[in-house]
Design brief:
Number of domains: 2
Structural class: alpha/beta
Strand order of the largest sheet: 8-7-6-9-10-11-12
Number of strands: 12
Number of helices: 15
Order of helices and strands: EHHEHEHEHEHHHEHEHEHEHEHEHEH
Strand content: 15-25%
Low-confidence stretches: none
CATH class of the largest domain: Alpha Beta
Mean pLDDT: 95
Largest sheet: 7 strands, parallel
CATH architecture of the largest domain: 3-Layer(aba) Sandwich
């Protein structure tokens, strides 16, 4: 029987039970020698040094410190970092790749609940459900919340900004609805967009035509305030903006003014800054719903991340390609 590699956890205590519940942990132990008593949240100190010295696989998650040059040097046997969460952009130092260490992320698994959240927001946003619910709860005149003229997702034009993992899952889910789909992404061709069920357009055109616009682009210097005052002004009256990507993609001041005018509505799971300060005007607007960055894996959904990481370990040991492998050249363009 081949020797099993030594695996070490680097994950916050609060995240561990959800990501690695007992049955997922038992499956992991069939492939690796691991103790759940060691869950590193710092690479400093003698306990971390001892764990890193023997680690061949690092199973990481929320709360893992940055794997920098010093951490790599302390782990001479390390061959893979398997991240049971989303982006590794802030986690993995170039030294990891320079050493030839394989990196995998469960970002694809984490994308699933974000796509589901987005579609729910599209359905409810198209009905103006959030503002109408506030009017209803406030005992306002029935005329303010009851009329549904011009609402509903049927026959809408939905603009998707970014053919990212999440963007592609949203496009896939939109096939179940009777909507027109526009896609703006400078990295794909019209033929590729057509295969995704969308018409490829430039961002200004998407903003002009989109009854609902959902953002799934990475946060890069060139995408900062991608939706600025000018582009927000292009949105049709009554449009709904959904952002589950990064708050910096939208100019918060310009969005606040546009929503305060009543011209457009918004569903925001991310903001800039995040969190917004207490009393920020966006919290008070009846046509804006802000959720606390909860679209990604939560509660029962967390185990999907652990299952993905364990599957990646099994594939690694079998010599199969990893489904979540991250290459160094991808990092600058990732979320």
């Amino acid at each position: 029987m081949p020797r099993r590699p030594v695996a070490v956890f680097a994950i916050a205590p609060w995240a561990f039970p959800g990501v690695f519940p007992p049955d997922v942990l038992a499956r992991l132990r069939r492939s690796a020698d691991v103790t759940d008593a060691v869950r590193l949240t710092s690479f400093d100190g003698p306990a971390a040094a001892e764990a890193l010295a023997g680690a061949e696989i690092l199973l990481t998650g929320w709360g893992c410190p940055r794997i920098d040059t010093r951490a790599v040097a302390a782990a001479p046997r390390l061959r893979a970092v398997l991240h049971a969460a989303g982006s590794v952009k802030a986690l993995v130092d170039p030294a990891v790749f320079e050493r030839g260490i394989t990196v995998s992320s469960a970002a694809q698994a984490n994308a699933v609940p974000v796509a589901d959240y987005t579609v729910a927001a599209l359905v409810l946003g198209a009905k103006l459900a959030f503002g109408r619910a506030r009017h209803y709860a406030g005992g306002r005149d029935r005329a303010l919340w009851q009329p549904g003229d011009g609402t509903g997702l049927y026959d809408c034009t939905v603009g998707v900004i970014g053919a990212s993992r999440i963007g592609r899952l949203v496009l896939q889910r939109l096939r179940a609805f009777d909507v027109r789909v526009l896609l703006s992404d400078p990295t794909i061709t019209p033929a590729e967009a057509a295969l995704l069920g969308a018409e490829l357009v430039d961002l200004d055109d998407l903003c002009r035509r989109g009854d609902l616009v959902t953002v799934h682009a990475p946060a890069l210097p060139e995408t900062h305030h991608l939706l600025d005052r000018r582009r927000l002004a292009l949105l049709p009256d009554g449009a709904v903006l959904i952002n589950t990507a990064r708050g910096s993609l939208v100019d918060t001041r310009a969005l606040t003014e546009a929503c305060a005018s009543g011209r457009i509505s918004a569903v925001l799971d991310v903001t800039d800054p995040e969190p917004l300060p207490p009393g920020h005007p966006l919290f008070e607007l009846p046509n804006v719903l802000i959720t606390p960055h909860l679209a990604g894996a939560q509660g029962r959904e967390l185990r999907r991340l652990g299952e993905f990481a364990v599957t990646e370990l099994e594939r690694l040991l079998a010599g199969d390609p990893l489904r979540g492998q991250v290459l160094p050249e991808q990092l600058p363009y990732s979320a």
